[in-house]
Design goal:
The structure holds three protein chains of three kinds. By secondary structure, chain A is mostly helical. Chain A has one domain: Cytochrome c oxidase, subunit III, four-helix bundle (Four Helix Bundle (Hemerythrin (Met), subunit A), Up-down Bundle). Chain A is built from eight helices and no strands. In chain B, helix 8 runs parallel beside helix 10. Chain B starts with 15 loop residues before the first helix and ends in a 47-residue tail after the last helix. By secondary structure, chain C is mostly helical. Chain C has two domains: 53 residues; 29 residues. The longest helix of chain C is centred in the last third of the chain and has 25 residues. In chain C, 35% of the residues are buried. The chains are: A mainly alpha, B mainly alpha, C mainly alpha. Chains B and C meet through helix 8 and helix 10 of B and helix 3 of C.
Chain lengths: 207, 534, 98
């Protein structure tokens, strides 16, 4: 059945889409819940080891990445603001900027991971470093890889979504009058930012 | 029967197979789920039968120990994720929620169709696991064994992960539908209780399933590459896996029972021609079960090594659920009392349900008492408890729903006599399958054990005999309904005399659900023009 | 216009409010980094998480327009956080009291 037959008007359908998206975001957030739960429990078990391991992470890269995502979130919000104001090209430029920032985030994480691998800090069974207190540090870094890895997967998906949206705006399929998908895609990107806002202190600052 | 020409029933749309495979009609999607979940029930039931046959003798009867472990794992996985969770919401929720709220379809019809295909994909991947080596971890995938065992762990966790995605899609669709597509004049208190239970179930689905998704991912990665997060040798804690797993799986059991409680409410009201004694109490208890269900997961872990602090908290909170369940039972009984009861196969299923659900629920309170559960944990006592709820409760309600809504969906009526016989066979067969298991568990027989001491044999034999009767009863049910599909008398729009909205449309409904727009002035329980209770 | 185009809802965020939010977020990030340099001991983690929650709130209100969204969206946001806290409480309540 077509949307026109089900909904009273387009505004009702837009409202329903937004509602659905927020519920989906709730689901996505809870996907990380188990990892936060494991982090809390293991941190309670190995407080000193965790603190040492956190201190071993590169807080500079971590902080830069935090700012990178915050700015990218700004540009996504700006792209919606631009399109609502009728500025199509600014919208596309903002989206592309956000994508570039997102890609830099992934680039920096790749650099970070390679530094870790070079030291023998790898997830789970591949962990060979002896520098840090064994059990607690290994568990910390396995969680670190799980949390940032799951987050990175979402960033990759987010980049694909932003790219798709930029293309739609370019082709005038997403317009000043009808751009609910831009709003929904933007929400997804902002969630990725929010998750990282919590990962950053837990993995880089609380050492 | 009306004389004016009716629109075509939803069964006919002139598009043949494409009209089914590419349908966005919620009613057809419900039918698709019916076939999927029925196949799952047959498969899961077959595994159970082989298990029960194996347990006829203390040592090997049919299969070896490893195969036995795989059988109970596959039985659990298939029954939980391919049948129990999707059955009532996927079949009856899909078919009836839009009609019950006066909508022409769900909020996102294409998402609805996608949820079916994702269910299909997840089921296929899970089934691949069964043939590509099988899994022997139990449906609970406890670490560290799930990481170290040989077998198709990767396939099965991927399959269940995909099935979980289908659940979340369905959940989102129902929540948005109920929020946004109620017809003009249909308020939140003007919808049938069944809709409230689907709503509560959907909330659990969207919140809990992602945690399962993560747990499965961790198991899969651990099995393939070694994570060590739950491996004591690597400083990991296996109990933490159980926390993650049960944080989902306890609410999951409420996903499996809440829709059933909604079905029962509708049947009780229709067959007593009474509104519920308190609509508000039923609503509150549905939401209450959903909420409290999230607070109790540790009661699966009383002897796992969890702290006594947690055991105390979880034990106390677990008792709360019984309050909400009891509220429902008392409300149903009070609704029947003082009503004008008519008899029919659905209400017969309720009579079986009421005993089995109450008994199962009370045994749940028993095992929630941690000092008692120390004795019963991982014995057949627990197995009996959850089968009383899952089979005696959920499956019975599913069968009741089949018999209740059959005339609406097919436009035909089935033989009440065969309905009675099959209902009795199912109920009695069930009872003799699982009642002995309470005794077995209390006497000390552990669950998931392939062999047992001789003195447990007679109870095992009784259980297997019961299972055979149950299986025959189910076959009879299917057979009688299948015959009715072809040879049953034409059913009127409202054969049971119900006031609920779905009975005010033709049997079967037309594609767009309504011939005349639904009339919100009469509530779903407006019998004899009586005012709604709220 | 999508999402809403009537006068009975709060209007879209202005460009200025977005920039203010960005500055606030960057500022809070610096504050968080600064707080981590101080030896706060056991208070370090709650402080860091508190600042993170504030930043998340800014993103939710300024970028995600949570206040313009339906009540259910706001309930979901709160419930989600609550459930994460619940799971953490359950696991820590186990590990810490064994």
């Amino acid at each position: 059945m077509k949307p026109e037959e089900i909904y009273a008007d387009r505004r009702a359908r837009t409202h329903a889409l937004h509602l659905g998206m927020w519920i989906f975001l709730g689901s996505e957030t809870l996907l990380f819940a188990g990892l936060f739960g494991l982090y809390s429990a293991y941190r309670a078990q190995f407080p000193a080891d965790f603190a040492t391991a956190v201190g071993h992470n590169d807080a500079t890269i971590g902080t830069i990445n935090t700012l990178v995502l915050i700015v990218s979130s700004f540009f996504v919000a700006w792209s919606i603001h631009a399109l609502r104001g009728g500025h199509r090209r600014m919208c596309i430029a903002s989206l592309v900027t956000a994508m570039a920032l997102g890609a830099s985030f992934l680039g920096l994480k790749t650099i970070e991971y390679s530094h870790h691998f070079a030291e023998g800090i790898a997830p789970g069974a591949q962990y060979t470093s002896t520098e840090l207190p064994e059990a607690g540090a290994r568990t910390f870094f396995t969680l670190y890889y799980a949390m940032t890895g799951l987050h990175a997967l979402h960033v990759i998906a987010g980049l694909a979504i932003l790219g798709w949206l930029a293309t739609r705006v370019r082709r005038r399929r997403t317009t000043t009058e009808r751009h609910v998908e831009l709003e929904l895609g933007g929400l997804y990107w902002h969630l990725i930012d929010v998750v990282w806002i919590f990962l950053w202190p837990l993995l880089y600052l609380t050492g | 029967m009306t004389e004016s020409p009716l629109p075509e029933s939803f069964w006919r749309d002139g598009r043949g197979l494409r009209g089914w495979l590419l349908t966005t009609d919620h009613k057809r999607i419900g039918i698709l789920f019916f076939f999927g979940t029925t196949l799952a029930l047959i498969l899961g039931g077959t595994f159970a039968l082989v298990l029960r046959l194996e347990l006829l003798t203390p040592d090997k009867t049919l299969v070896d120990a490893h195969t036995y472990n795989q059988l109970f794992t596959h039985h659990g996985v298939v029954m939980v994720w391919m049948f129990l969770i999707p059955s009532i919401p996927g079949v009856f929720g899909n078919f009836f929620v839009p009609i019950m709220i006066g909508a022409k379809d769900v909020a996102f019809p294409r998402l609805n169709l996608a949820s079916f295909y994702v269910y299909l994909l997840g089921s296929v991947v899970t089934l691949v696991a069964l043939v590509a080596g099988g899994v022997d971890t139990g449906w609970t995938f406890y670490a560290p064994y799930s990481a170290s065992t040989n077998g198709a762990v990767g396939w099965v966790v991927t399959g269940v992960f995909i099935l979980g995605i289908s659940t979340i899609m369905s959940g989102i669709n129902f929540i948005v539908t109920i929020h946004t597509l109620r017809a003009k004049g249909v308020g939140w208190m003007g919808i049938p209780i069944f809709v409230w239970t689907i709503y509560a179930t959907s909330i659990i689905q969207v919140l809990a399933t992602p945690v399962l998704g993560l747990s499965l991912m961790l198991v899969g990665i651990d099995h393939a590459w070694g994570l060590g997060l739950f491996d004591p040798a690597a400083g990991g804690d296996p109990v933490l896996f159980q926390h993650l797993f049960w944080f989902y799986s306890h609410p999951a059991v409420y996903i499996m029972i809440l829709p059933a409680l909604g079905v029962i409410t509708e049947i009780v009201c229709t067959f007593s021609r009474n509104p519920p004694v308190s609509y508000r109490l039923l609503l509150v208890s549905a939401l209450g079960i959903a909420f409290v269900g999230f607070l109790t997961w540790g009661h699966h872990m009383f002897i796992a090594g969890m702290s006594t602090f947690d055991s105390g908290v979880f034990g106390a909170l677990s008792m709360l659920v019984a309050i909400f369940s009891a509220i429902k039972v008392f409300t149903w009984v009070a609704t029947l009392y003082g009503g004008r009861i008519s008899l029919g196969t659905p209400i017969l299923y309720f009579f079986g349900f009421s005993f089995l659900f109450v008994f199962g629920g009370m045994s749940g309170v028993a095992v929630a008492t941690s000092s008692l559960d120390v004795h019963w944990h991982d014995t057949y006592f627990v197995v009996a408890h959850f089968h009383f709820i899952m089979v005696g409760g959920s499956l019975t309600a599913y069968l009741a729903a089949l018999h209740y809504w059959f005339p609406k969906v097919t436009g035909r009526q089935y033989s009440g006599r065969w309905g009675l016989v099959s209902a009795m066979m199912v109920t009695l067969g069930f009872f003799f399958t699982f009642m002995p298991q309470f005794l077995l568990g209390n006497a000390g027989m552990p669950r998931r054990y392939y062999s047992y001491p001789d003195r447990y044999q007679w109870l095992n034999v009784m259980s297997t005999a019961g299972a055979s009767v149950l299986a025959l009863g189910l076959l009879l049910t299917v057979g009688a309904l299948a015959v009715a599909c072809v040879r049953g008398k034409r059913a009127p729009a409202d054969p049971w005399g119900s006031a609920s909205p779905e009975w005010q449309v033709p049997s079967p409904p037309p594609q767009h659900n309504f011939v005349t727009p639904p009339d919100p002035r009469h509530g779903p329980y407006d019998y004899d023009g009586r005012e709604r209770s709220e | 216009m999508d999402s809403t185009d009537s006068a009975d809802e709060p209007s879209f965020p202005s460009g200025r409010s977005l920039v203010i939010a960005l500055v606030a977020l960057a500022g809070l990030t610096v504050v968080s980094w600064g707080a981590a340099q101080l030896a706060l001991g056991a208070a370090g983690t709650p402080v860091a998480l508190g600042i993170a929650a504030t930043k998340a709130g800014v993103v939710a209100v300024a970028f995600m327009e949570l206040l313009r969204a339906s009540t259910l969206a706001r309930v979901i946001a709160l419930v989600t956080v609550g459930f994460i806290a619940l799971l953490c409480a359950g696991t820590v309540g186990d590990v810490a009291f064994r």
